[in-house]
Design a protein that fits this description.
Structural class: alpha/beta
Shape: globular
Number of strands: 15
Distance between the termini: 19 Å
CATH class of the largest domain: Alpha Beta
Bound molecules: pyridoxal-5'-phosphate
Number of domains: 2
Order of helices and strands: HHEHEHEHEHEEEEEHHHEEEHEEHEH
Low-confidence stretches: none
CATH superfamily of the largest domain: Type I PLP-dependent aspartate aminotransferase-like (Major domain)
Length: about 375
Amino acid sequence: MNKKIPLSTPTMHGEEMDFVKEAFEKNWIAPLGFNCDGFEDEMNQYLNTDVDVPYHSLALCSGTAALHLAVKLAGVKRGETVFCSDMTFAATVNPIVYEGGVPVFIDSEYETWNMDPDALEAAFKKYPRAKAVMLAHLYGTPSKMDEIKEICRRHNVILIEDAAEALSATYKGRQCGTFGKYGALSFNGNKIITTSGGGMLLTQDKSAREKAFFWATQAREKSPWYQHEEIGYNYRMSNIVAGIGRGQLMHLNEHRERKKKIYLTYQSGLKDLPLTMNPHLEYTSPNFWLSCMLIDKDINIDPIKIMEILAENNIETRPIWKPMHMQPVFKGNDFIKLTDKAVNEDIFARGLCLPSDIKMTADEQKFVIDTIKSCFGGT
Ligand SMILES: *Cc1c(COP(=O)(O)O)cnc(C)c1O
């Protein structure tokens, strides 16, 4: 049996260990500390190249925590409607519910697989008093930002960007995560860079960062004793974990190049089959976190069947995120679509995420491609 070909796993380089070692040597084995400060500064520098107002990032224990604090900062209150991407990981939605907000899911379009601006506009007709929009960039592909930003501006709602999968992806040259009032990154184990687990809240509003830091530190008031006037959380990033992040960030562009190469290799290797790769707009530059294929409409092949055949060959794949409106836990939530059959149900039924690990060798990727071909009756 060949070695397992995974979907996406961590890739370490060495500098990560240097930062971690420094933390050990200084016995700074705690939340906060010099690596957290350094990681935030370095991320701010990375983001600030594209923006006029500087970023004030906040390192946190997970991307979910960053999204939760973003929802709190947006002031979402019990019973308020939040429009939310539908085809995404549950972590995009859950923080809305933590705050008592009511997610209304918005269907996607076929050009980026992200939130359809026309469906979003339709949602405002039905729910004119919606409070915020929670937008995810699926698999590192930028959404239709000009259209979505314009709609949010016109309806005067706050845009929160879930850029957990999209660090380093750009839209018209600008980084994903820097379009919303608040953005969130994830450094979970399989993301384009990882800290084992972690996240970051992105904001240009210094006082918002301070407020989020306060909540993330158990809402400790400034006082000689432990004084609490609000409910807080323990959401801070550890100084050890941040060290891994600093080392990883040095290699982000390299990871990005590798991911792109993997995507292009699939695209050319699979071009004779009745399928397409996950699409993007020509003026955007995805980070190609995961390469995905979409089987043509008239072809009667179930992607789950392909997943099983690949698994028999020790190749890991994953279905497309099952849309949130199809999840039992959200069965009471509304879903806005413009077509008879939802775009997301269609993509979910025909799509599959392919191995996108940056350590995958050319031979391994060829094996993946050949095995996919065999599923379609080729060799
Ligand atoms: C990974 C991910 C998250 C959550 O990040 P964690 O760091 O695992 O909490 C949120 N949204 C999307 C779209 C993700 O892929």
